[in-house]
Design goal:
The chain is built from 6 helices and 2 strands, in the order H-H-H-E-E-H-H-H. It is mainly alpha-helical. It has a domain of about 100 residues: Orthogonal Bundle (Arc Repressor Mutant, subunit A), CATH 1.10.10. The chain has a two-stranded antiparallel sheet. Strand 1 and strand 2 form a beta hairpin. Helix 1 crosses helix 6, helix 2 crosses helix 3 and helix 4 packs across helix 5. The longest helix is centred in the C-terminal third of the chain and has 27 residues. The chain is elongated. The two termini are about 30 Å apart. GO terms for molecular function: DNA-binding transcription factor activity.
């Protein structure tokens, strides 16, 4: 099964909106992510609904940040994309008759619940600005401090 990359892609877009382009159309973002503008509009709608970005239609319109990256946590973004399943493992059946399977499923559910709580706590402690800062440090080592990002197309 393929990975859900929506969160990583959304974070990518937010950092570009902050560091490289102040406003981008759905078409611009779609080219950057190599996807369809309809997918971008769906992805960005959750961010808009949570007050992270704003959109303007028409000529000169597009998506832009409404909040500073330092005030946006990974948990905010995770919630904005619809809180997808964090782990792709789980029970084999909804209501198993086998007592062994019931025991396995109960312990797995408990353990996965604890792991998800830890991950959400960690998401809440990381601001998108922290990721942008990491990008800047990586890029400075490669390009001597020039902020033009040659490593991706956006």
């Amino acid at each position: 099964m393929s990975r859900d990359t929506r969160m990583a892609r959304t974070l990518h877009v937010l950092i570009h909106l902050d560091r490289h382009v102040k406003r981008a159309t759905s078409d611009d973002i779609a080219r950057m992510l190599n996807t369809n503008p309809v997918v971008v509009r769906r992805m960005m709608a959750g961010l808009r609904d949570r007050g992270i970005v704003a959109s303007e239609k028409g000529h000169g319109g597009g998506w832009e940040l409404k909040r500073a990256l330092g005030s946006i946590t990974l948990l905010d973004v995770y919630r904005a994309i619809g809180e997808p399943t964090l782990f792709n493992i789980g029970p084999n059946a909804e209501r198993p008759d086998c007592l062994v399977e019931q025991a396995v499923d109960a312990r797995m559910a408990e353990t996965l619940g604890e792991a998800e709580a830890l991950l959400r706590d960690r998401f809440e402690s990381i601001a998108v600005a922290d990721l942008a800062h990491d990008f800047e440090q990586r890029f400075a080592r490669i390009a001597g401090g020039n902020h033009a990002d040659e490593s991706c197309s956006g």
